[in-house]
Amino acid sequence: MCEVEIFLGFKTAPCSCRQTRKVSQMEVEEVVCLPRLSRVAVCGGTHGNELSGVYLVRELLKMEKMVKEDEEEGSVSVLKVLSNPRAIQQCRRYFEIDLNRSFTQATLNDPVSETTPYEIIRSQELNCMLGPKGCPEAVDLVCDLHNTTANMGLCLIAYSDCDWICMHIFRHLQRKMTDTAVRFIHLDLPPKEAYSLDSVGKHGIAMEIGPQPHGVVRSNIYTTMKAGVQHVLDWVRSFNSGNVFEGGPVEVYTLVKNVDYPRDSETHSITAAIHPELQDKDFCLLHPGDPLFQTFSEETVRYKGNEPLYPFFINECAYYEKCIALSLARKRSVRIPPIQVQTEGEHQQNRWRVKSREE
Amino acid sequence: MICREAGQQEGKRKSSGHIQRLLSNRLTSLIFQIEMEHVSFPALSRVAICGGTHGNELSGVYMVREMQKRQADKVGSASITTVLANPKAVDVCRRYIERDLNRCFTDALLSAPITDSTPYELRRAQELNAQLGPIGSQEAMDLVCDLHNTTSNMGLCLIFYSLDWISLHIYKYIQSKITSAPVRALQLDLPLSEVFSLESVGKHGFAVEVGPQPHGVVRADIFNLMKEAVELITDWIQKFNSGCTFEGGEVEAYNYVKIIDYPRDPITHEITAAIHPHLQDNDFSLLRTGDPMFQSFLGETVTYEGEELYPFFVNECAYYEKNIAFHLSRKTTFSIPSISVKE
């Protein structure tokens, strides 16, 4: 994770070298050098009924058989993975338990027995294939593809708001995909508690695109995801080639809390739906007093929080069973530093530095 | 005019109903411009509202639960029976457990003997037939309304098998009252022996299909639309039973013609294209030869070739496994007579 080492106001990553880059006469920005991203995993079907990722990974696998591996400078090895084959086959979110909650360190270390659910066996397989989580052998970047029934446009979801690779990728997508709302969601969790597939790589992002019903492919959503993945890979190649990516401010939505539906105290069934004024209004500021739910007898339930917050995952189908009607976030601006790939010499120097630190 | 009720109180559904349908179809074109004679029907004393026939189509599930909470069991002189048709599927929020319940109401399946290996939904269909039918008998519910959702952008549709004047008048009434969404009638032309869905159990019946809504999700706007439709249906029943005459006139309906499947990989059978953006969400917009139909995952366009027809159930989630990308229909206009309750 990032060392919290404040230098000229930036957080720096460990084992990085620094070059000075003049931005203006008033300010000198340090370029953060980071290891190249040699291995990237693109994963689809982590939830078997989120179909854009399933079909995109299938297409990438088909193309892989036909096209020779790219050997230009800055090339990257791209692994394409269908994460949950059983769930894909049945077009269901999961077979026994949610695969994308099965990547905490504890779950990955759990001994396997005859009663171990399919998804835990699978998460441990994926951890071997793409990890192990937290180790130098892990892939450099995991990009895990998802769909949501919520009207969220394209969101990149990550655990850290100071992983400069992820945040530069985000900014790149935002600049390239001008017809799409592109946002960055930050789940503030330490690596051991990070529970999703993307946490297995050294860097990881979930790419979440909606709205799309589960079990359905919408052309426009598929096209957006295809473009998003292409821009991620283009950025990685560009990074590996030695380009400098300028710093600057980016907007980040940090998860604050989840809100459940009103429920019947005996049956636990929901007694209201998301209010029509909130439905489809992901990332539109929700103020205290704004309508939140409409009961089935048409009464309005209002938001009673203390502060205005940004809602997202509004009416996500899969979250009914997790007791989440919507999530709420604060928005803030984070300044990301300029970054550049480490040279081979710098990389070696840092490896020795890490070794001696460990000793 | 010939319909399922008039002049035919007894006899097996198969023979009299079938003859009625043949005559009905042949006479439809003849009666197109003719002012039709008024028709009287017996009162609709027993009505069933069914939800959760597909366990993940949630408007109907919550509609039925809400009606049961309010103990809405009477409207005027009619008794209302509310039914959660597939409770096991509702519990796990899936379309079905073993088989699609809404394909289990054919004569053959309803009379098949039950064994240990009989799928859950076949047993359930026979239970529902006993409770709301039996199909074709005097004891059957006068009217069965079955509530459904679709991922397609279809607004509100009433779906029925035959040109049943009761159902068509209810449709006409709903269409005249609802302004927030398009209201349409869909007719599936099937011989009575082949009808397969729950609403066919009643003497009269239709499905109420509302979309777009993802399966497993409740949208307030879609729930409210379905609620409004159900209230108008019970409203109409009350008016009809108390002696109102409903004037005849012309109605437009979409008659099912055929289905179109997705392009598929010949080996894996996986779909190789999605509904084209020009067709997506454009249910009931005329599809002409040369119009885009599918977009392959490589970005290539597949165009439609054939008779100009109206698509519906465009990109319905549950139909991928039934090899249906969308349905096509013809739009027809025909006359319906004025009707009132028999004294």
What's the structural blueprint in terms of helices and strands?
The complex is a heterodimer of chains A (359) and B (343).
Chain A lengths: L2 E5 L2 E3 L5 E5 L5 E7 L4 E6 L6 H16 L10 E6 L2 H6 L14 H5 L8 H13 L10 E7 L5 E6 L5 H13 L5 E5 L16 E8 L8 H22 L7 E12 L12 E3 L16 E5 L4 E3 L7 E3 L13 E11 L2 E3 L2 H15 L1
Parallel strand pairs in A: 4-17, 5-6, 5-7, 7-10, 8-9, 9-11
Antiparallel strand pairs in A: 1-2, 3-4, 8-10, 11-16, 12-13, 13-14, 15-16
Chain B lengths: L12 H18 L8 E3 L4 E6 L6 H12 L4 E2 L2 E7 L2 H5 L15 H4 L9 H13 L10 E7 L5 E6 L4 H13 L5 E5 L16 E8 L8 H22 L7 E12 L12 E3 L16 E5 L4 E3 L6 E3 L13 E11 L2 E3 L2
Helix pairs in contact in B: 2-7, 6-7
In short:
The complex is a heterodimer of chains A (about 350) and B (about 350). Chain A is an alpha/beta fold and about 350 residues long.
What does this structure look like?
The complex is a heterodimer of chains A (359) and B (343). With 359 residues, chain A is α/β, with parallel strands linked by helices. Chain A has a 9-stranded mixed beta sheet. A 3-stranded mixed beta sheet of chain A has the order 3-4-17, with helices on one face. A 3-stranded antiparallel beta sheet of chain A has the order 12-13-14, with no helix packed on it. The longest helix of chain A is centred in the middle third of the chain and has 22 residues. In chain A, 45% of the residues are buried. The N terminus of chain A is likely disordered. In chain B, 48% of the residues are buried. By secondary structure, chain B is α/β, with parallel strands linked by helices. In chain B, the strands form 3 sheets. In chain B, strands 3-4-2-5-8-6-7-9-14-13 form a 10-stranded mixed beta sheet. In chain B, helix 2 packs across helix 7 and helix 6 packs across helix 7. In chain B, a hairpin with a 2-residue loop joins strand 3 and strand 4. Chain B is globular and about 65 Å long. Chain B contains 7 helices and 15 strands. Chains A and B meet through helix 1 and helix 6 of A and helix 2 and helix 7 of B.
